[in-house]
Amino acid sequence: KKLILPSTLSSVTIGDRKNNIEAIEIDGDNDVFYVEDGVLFKDNTLVWYPIEKTSTSYTVPDDVKSIGDYAFYGINRLERVVLPEGLTTIGTRAFSYDNRLNECNIPSSLTSIGDYAFSDEYWENYACQLVFDNNILTLPEGLKSTSHTSSQILG
Q1: Rounded CA gap, 98 and 82, in Å?
Q2: 7, 31, 81, 105: least buried by Cβ within 10 Å?
Q3: How many whole angstroms separate alpha carbon 91 and alpha carbon 83?
Q4: pLDDT in tens, 26-69
Q5: DSSP readout, 15-34?
Q6: How far apart are CA 113 and CA 145, in angstroms?
């Protein structure tokens, strides 16, 4: 099941997604957005990963600097995400409600993690297990903003 976006599209707001989309396409040339492997991007931002994409693992392209708000929200099949070195921002609720996601790296280039980026509705369960090295999570030295994320990660 595909979502085909018009070539005239200039803005997308991603929020709570209840759909069965497996891939995204753009009908014609678009000056604002582009699609790679069924995933929507704008400039160096991953905007929208389809909720029912069949892959269990995804490697974010090396040129991506930002994961947009709600970009991976509610993904049902994804178990592993590889984030590139050079990524600086993870948006609000970017990985929230990703029930099967259990592996996600934190690149040293990360400077900002948005509100509830990895939480589910109960907040004591996290979509992405971010515990490394004897239950110690080391956040990147350059991290400048964590918002509500610190309390999420640390419990």
Answers
A1: 15
A2: 31
A3: 13
A4: 988 898 999 999 999 999 999 999 988 999 999 999 999 999 99
A5: -S------EEEEES--SSEE
A6: 6
Burial class of residue 52 in the structure, from the number of CB atoms within 10 Å of its CB (0-12 exposed, 13-18 middle, 19+ buried): middle
For the beta sheet containing 103-104, the strands, ordered from the edge strand earlier in sequence to the opposite edge, are: 57-59, 80-82, 103-104
For 68-113, write each residue's pLDDT tens digit.
999 998 887 888 899 999 999 999 888 887 777 777 888 888 888 8
Q: For residue 109, which phi and psi values (nearest 5 degrees)?
A: -80, -10
| Among candidate residues 89, 154, 94, the one with its CA nearest the CA of residue 123 | 154
**The whole model's pTM is what?**
0.82
In one-letter notation, the amino acid at residue 122 is Y
